[in-house]
Amino acid sequence: MKEKVVEIKQMFNEEIKSIDNIKDLNELRVKYLGKKGEIQKLSPLIKDLSNDEKKDFGKSLNETKKEVSKKIEDLLEKLESKELEKRLLDEKIDTSLPSTKLPLGFVHPLTKVRREIEEIFVSMGYDVVEGPEVEFDLYNFEKLNLPKNHPARDAQDTFYVNDEVLLRTQTSPVQVRTMEKSEGEIRIISPGKTYRRDDDDPTHSHQFMQIEGLVIGKNISLAHLKGTLEEFAKKIFGKDVKVRFRPSYFPFTEPSIEVDISCFKCKGKGCSFCSNTGFIEILGSGMVHPNVLKMSGYDPEVYKGFAFGLGIERVAMLKYGISDIRDFYTNDLRFLNQFNRKGGLEDEA
Length: 349
Ligand code: DAH
Prior knowledge:
Elements: H1 2-17, H2 22-33, H3 38-42, H4 51-90, H5 109-123, E1 127-128, E2 134-136, H6 137-140, E3 165-167, H7 173-181, E4 186-195, E5 207-217, H8 222-237, E6 243-248, E7 253-262, E8 279-288, H9 290-295, E9 304-311, H10 312-320, H11 333-336
Parallel strand pairs: 1-4
Antiparallel strand pairs: 2-3, 4-5, 5-9, 6-7, 7-8, 8-9
The structure holds 3,4-dihydroxyphenylalanine (DAH).
């Protein structure tokens, strides 16, 4: 009986030598250790043996089982690590392969136009200064020569936090904040968001953006205002554009001036786009009112200044022929994609 066991062991030892993969090893395991395997097959023979022999046989059968399983486990471990190594080698990533191209973002048309305007003024020596969007009534109105109950406030109704704090209706309060902090000459522009209690329609939005400009110096005159704004208009809309200055009214400037550019649709001849006037209004400006200078600590006898304010959306709409201001804010990719690198605007984010 014992010889049978030895024979099986030898057979197993012979067979395991040629095994070099996990699949064959599993088959070998079933063949020797399975329910109907070679070792199990010997179990029934035990009943025909004497008690002594039974013990002996049982022991050698168990030992063989253990030995066979250990050899199988050891080899399995070896084969597994070999297969892992092979897989790692096979699956090595080729980092020199070109990757899939992810689509690049691009700046929003309003950001593009804001940056363009900033660049024009920075190249003329202006600093860019920002101010708060939640502003005091004092800075948004009072110190700009619009005391409480001034009729011109009607055109700039806004969202109030309380009687003294509001969402700014214009970037002009940055003029006041800058003058209060400065002495002597100033040359700044201030871009940012502004708010008004307007019903949204193609040309109005309760939230929009402006850029404010302020120049203060001892010999600043209307001629500087004209030269600066003419240069700006030609840089942003093209050198062939005609610029027109018109008297107007703003409480914080005296005299006040509105600036128009010749209509680029009809080249000044008159069409429905420019209401047959040949011109389109682009910004408000003027010489800083002596009261405004005084309220911010400047002596109007010594210092003069000019200021201007323009809507970024308005410039973008004119520049790119956009007819509905709401298109800027609704994040509709069909609209925005026109301004990707293949379209009119080229900056990446
Ligand atoms: N703040 C004015 C507005 O929102 C625009 C403006 C006009 C600004 C004249 C100025 C200015 O600084 O001098 O309508």
